[in-house]
Each structure stands twice: as C-alpha cells, then as structure tokens.
Amino acid sequence: MDDGVILVLTCLEDSSADMVIGHLIAQGAQVARFDPGIEFPSRAIVSSVFGAGPPRGRLVTATRQVDLERVRAVYYRRPTPYPTPPASQAATFVSREAKFGLGGILATLPCRYVSHPWTLLAAEHKPLQLSAAQRAGFAVPATLMTNDVEEARAFAAEHGQLVYKPLRGGSYTGADGEPCTIWTSPVQLGDLDDGIGHTIHQFQARVDKTADLRVTVAGGQVFCVRLDSRLLDWRADYEGITYTVIAPPAGLPDKCFAFLAELGLPFGAFDFALTEDGPVFLECNPNGQWGWIEDETGLPIARAIADLLLEDPT
Amino acid sequence: MPEEHTRPWGLSRMTPLPPAPPASYRTVHLDPVTQQAVYVDQNGKPIEAGRHGTNKQTSKAQTTGGSDGQNPTPPDETTVTDYDND
C-alpha cells in the first residue's frame, strides 16, 4: 500500500523539525526533507507538468526522489527564504523565478499543510490578528498603529501606561555593530517625538499582568504553560523564566480554535498576559517556536504536530 | 537629509541581544536515512539529539562571528515567510 510521503520544508538547523521527523519515522511514515531556498537549483531537481488532469511532478534532492502527487502532507517549518541578492540581475532572476515557480508548486500540492505558507503570510500581520482575536472573543488591549505623533500623544493621555511593540520582529545592528533587537517596552508621554512620523508605530495600553501564558495549539490539542518572568517581555531573558504547565483557563481553548479557524491555521503559538480578570490576547505566532517549551516541560508538542500530519484527510 | 532627521522613533527602542553562549557543535549535516540533522562536536563526534542547544529562541544575529550557526533558531517574530508582498 502506498501511504505517500510527508514533505518537510525546513532549514537544516531547525531542530524542532527534527523532533517532528523523529515521531513521523517512529510511526513508519516516509519523510522527505527539503530546503528550497538553499538546495534549489544546485542540489535539487524539480519538474512539474500541467495539462489534462491534475499536475504531475517530481522532486529530487540529494537524498530523496519524490513523486509530487504522492505527497500526503507538507510540514512548512521555516525553510530558508529564497535568496535576495543585492546586485546581480541573473541572481535576481534565478531567485524570483524559483520563488514564484518552485514556491508555487510547493504551495499547491493537493494535500494537508501545517501550515500553508500563504496562510502564514497573512497571519503574520498584526492588524489581522487583533481584529480576528476580537472576533474570537479574546480580551485585546487598546492598540494604536500610527505615524501621527499627536495621535500617539492623545492615545497616551487616554490610556496612561503604554507599551511600544514593533509590528514585525527581527534583528538590527547597533552603533558598534552589535546585534540588537526591539523588545516590547514601556512608553512615557515624554518619550514620543516627531520620529514617529517616519513609519507606522504600534502602541498598546499596558496590561497589568501577573504572569504570561504561552498556549501552543496543534490541531485539537492545547498545551498551556504559565511563564513567570520579572520582565515585561520574557523573550529578553530565557534564563529568568519559570515554566508551569497549567490547565487552560475556562473558555480559552475554544477561542483559540475559533481564531485559528478564521485564519485557516492548524497550529498556533499564542501569547497572553494573565491578569486578575483572565487572559488578555497579545499575539499568535502562526509558525512560532515550541521546541524549547517541550524541552522545559515535557509536553508532547512534536508528537501532536506529527499526528496532525499523519491524520487521514477528511 | 542626514539620517537623524529621518530616523524612525521605533529604532530608539533597540537594545543589544544577550551574548551568545559558546558554540556547542562544529558542523551539521543531513542524515540521508532519517532526514534529521546530525550535529557534530569539535572532536568529530555526533551530539545527542536535544543537546546541541538549537531549540532555544535565540537570534541568528548572535552568530555573526562564525559560520557554524550555533543557536540558529530565530525567535517567533523573525519567522520568515518567503512570500513578501512586492
């Protein structure tokens, strides 16, 4: 019997992908791993034929040959982006064609995706998240996105304590070349200046929290962990976090399911601020980290993701 | 226009990342059978799964000094979705 292949699109050093692959193999699944942005075109061959009937194609990596119509599920776990070369026209062409050709082939296989790359792209946008969170029934902090400093000042005057949080995370470089980032940080009214006019900035009413919750949802399974940290933004010091597995607050799983259903995601890593009135939605990381949560708590998240990939399509 | 006149306010919130821990492996390659990554230490020996420290949410930017990519897993927000709008 042909059970098909599970295609894992990921970079070589994503150890969370290794954890899921381990469970897939243990359950007898065939796995092919591929990092299109790195391996294609020098170390992989791809062909796809479109005509009468469904498309047919093949993917040959250094270690696997896959008939694309045999792919039963795709685990899209942070593959390396297609290169963005600065200068060469040939390199730009190669990358652009790969992204829209190969990327299109890998995004239109008639199978389950955890999660679909185009769905992930939409879900990475905070404006969509905040409105969907509201519709799902979560408490959401008052939020302002603006490049108008007067609007920001009025918002600060109305809400008192604010935090600033970039709309997209990432690394930057400091004055001395040191790697930097921008964590969520408190804002005083006097901090605001005309520099706000130079792009859109996200401000939120500061939530008076007692702890944070990291809630990882994979299919129907919900893994709820309380994070105690002395910091406003726990990401700034992992050593300072205490992890406690707790039962999810009443009603929370259904709201998570509703949120993910609206966005079309089978997985999400949610961050909540825990307050005396219950959890407040901060964000959902649609392809967020969970490996370290499994390491710290023993929660079987990798297994849950593997089960999701192995489920028979209904 | 000098950069200070156009510098977006948000960049004033930049802080240095904590220093990277020492490298725990020298190289990494794909096991052709299992399709899992194999991490090899300074002495050429494979490192037990889960002991190479890549599961923490640390930044790739911390590894600017070397090509070994210790702690390469980016945090949530640097999740790269290939399809930037253009």
UniProtKB/TrEMBL annotation, chain A:
Entries under SUPFAM superfamilies matching the protein: Glutathione synthetase ATP-binding domain-like
Top-level taxonomic group: Bacteria
InterPro entries, per database record: GRASP_SAV_5884 (IPR026449), MvdD-like_ATPgrasp (IPR048936)
Pfam families, sorted: ATPgraspMvdD
Domain MvdD-like pre-ATP grasp: 6-111
NCBIfam families found in the cross-reference section: GRASP_SAV_5884
Protein name (Swiss-Prot/TrEMBL): ATP-grasp ribosomal peptide maturase
Species, as recorded: Nonomuraea longicatena
Automatic annotation (TrEMBL), chain B:
Signal peptide: none
Record-linked Pfam families: Actino_peptide
Extent of Polar residues compositional bias: 55-86
Region of interest called Disordered, as start-end residue ranges on this chain: 1-26, 39-86
Protein known as: ATP-grasp-modified RiPP
